Amino acid sequence: MRPTQHPFLDFFAPTEDVLIGDELGNIYYYVVEWPSAFDVSRDGWHGTTTKVASISVHTQQICALSWTPNGYGFISGANDNLACYVEIERILKQRMQHPSERDNHSREGSNTLHQGTLSKRRNGSRRTWMRDSMESYVYGTYPVTKFGPDGETRNATLDPEDDVIPVRRGQEKHCWKHDAAVKAIAFCPWQDNLVATGGGSNDKCIHFWHVGSEALLATIVVSAQVTSLIWSTTRPEIAATFGYPTPDHPYRVAVFSWPSCKQVGAIAWSGGPRALSAIPYPKGPADAPKGSRTAREGTIIVASSDRSIKFHEIWPEGSKATFGGFGMLGGSDILEGLDGIEKEGDVIR
User: Fold this and answer.
1) Quick one: where's region Disordered (predicted)?
2) Which of 75, 61, 64 is nearest to 174 (CA)?
3) For a tag site, which of 58, 163, 199, 249 has the least CB within 10 Å?
4) What whole-number distance in Å separates Cα of residue 115 and Cα of residue 113?
5) Terminal CA-to-CA distance of the chain, rounded, Å?
6) Per 3-state DSSP, what percentage of the chain is helix, strand, and coil (rounded to 5)?
7) 181-320 topology per CATH
């Protein structure tokens, strides 16, 4: 919830944070206010899109974007063979704490007061007290005032052109090098700081990383371009879809256990089409046995190069595996300790 961008009303509105990547390697961070149908009919307000940050940590086309589970950052993959972890909240808060270090965002000739900057809207219909910065909109920390057409003072709305935050190369927290474009990224839903990335045709591997320390935990060689990664929500397993295989093989979907990295399931496609992308689907077939893993976890939907969409039941049945705990971070006692996973050691007498 953030202060609405409605020009005359004051309330907190639900918003969505959106990342968009382009062919030049730029990433744009937007906050979208999307009112309900009732609000639209009542107020005539259709919402707005506010550009928060322009992020330039890559040099080639963006191929993958994934928010962290807590929403405080994201990992981006690109054709420059890099996966970059950006802590966007840390960057915003640093700028809030050190406004003097901003990159000359104040416009020449603007009249800045302690509460904000008086800025003329494009349509010339009103003047508005603007927030000191984009961070104050994202976090709602600065009290400001605006004037409606009746002269009444109200809370401010933020000019969408004002104070877009630049994030440049070197401001990312981690940058992981691959041997090909990074097309697949998946954060583990049940283990903090565990993320998997997949490389393209010259990489042909699934890599597992510890986000907090940048450490590489494990690598699975799959002999194919990795196009999607999907963690199971009920087992310590991960599914992968494959594009171009090298050497040639028919498998386009496989499931691996974690942290053993053993293959526990695979699906072959006849005729040689490639799996282009996949997403989880929370529902299974109507006739799925009640209590089965498919009924609990659903299926995946795969887009294929033969112009078809395929639904697959991929999660194998079997004895229940242990979630979390020891060994989930590559067996490193140090990394597990950093993440609060404690185990009893030998007693020294």
Assistant:
1) 96-126
2) 75
3) 249
4) 5
5) 55
6) 10, 40, 50
7) Methylamine Dehydrogenase; Chain H (2.130.10)
